[in-house]
Amino acid sequence: MNGKYRPPYTISPVIVRHIAEISELVGRYTVSGDTPLTPRLRHGNRLRTIQASLAIENNSLTLEQVTAVLSGKRVLGSPREIQEVRNAFVAYERLDSWEPAQRRDLLAAHRVLMAGLVDRPGAYRSGAVGIFRGKRVVHMAPPASRVGILMDDLLGWLKNTDEHPLVASSLFHYEFEFIHPFADGNGRMGRLWQTLILSKWKPLMAYLPVETVIHDRQQQYYRVLAQADRGGDATPFAEFILESLRTALVEAVTSDQVTDQVTDQVARLLAILADGEMVSTDLMAKLGLSHRPTFRKNYLESALTAELIERTLPKSPRSPTQRYRLTDKGRAMLARQKF
Question: CATH 1.10.3290.10: does it fit domain 13-259?
Fold first, then answer.
């Protein structure tokens, strides 16, 4: 290993600010070093993580379908996409058994994540590889003959660095994607390994669905990767990832608070809306209610305030054709309530 290896970056004011904000949020939300998330919320966040990380790689399965696959139910989807979900779940469940700076653990994780999907899971690539957007090459990775050396340098740096885990994990993520050590699965491996690094810092981070934020900002994700490549500087990517982590942490905290506040009435309403959009009269009928003020106060307004449902005609709330549907937060909540 080259002991002088160091990823190209600077600690910018933006990075310093994100470290402070994330550390404060984690400190406020963590008790005695353990994650305060309920088992149900941990499981729900993990499902969201898996669905979003695979969606970035063009897996078309929805959160509901991912939940069904992992519940042992039959799902209409390609065998490859279903296998990707199963592999990812096993990989994230094994996070505690791996050490971030160990090459054998990195290869073992790839073996789990890509089992049945590539010819040589758990082995570095033997050929050239690039990142394409359509027909355009946006990144050409180093030659295969250099992969082993580059990865040993990177893992050695990770083992010995004094940088804050938030910074180290983000830099590792960037350098990993730059090297692109595997023939396939590099994106999901990079995100998995950053989660592993962060989980060694704070257990809460193992259940932080940052992948959902990255998926929502996917084009920006690729832009900052390209920007870092052009400038030979990982700083823009680290800033982006830390901002995504902060956003995911805020959403996780909010979601946990909402979970505690969801009443049985709202939970019943969400379950009914899982079948699709409905007008209020149909919702009342399915709930077995006849008193409209009770329905509005205990069911409808509570769910709207928590942003678990939304109106199809938000500019005309009193429209006779008004219907209600689940929001993304409501669908995620519903998925968590099944466990």
Answer: yes
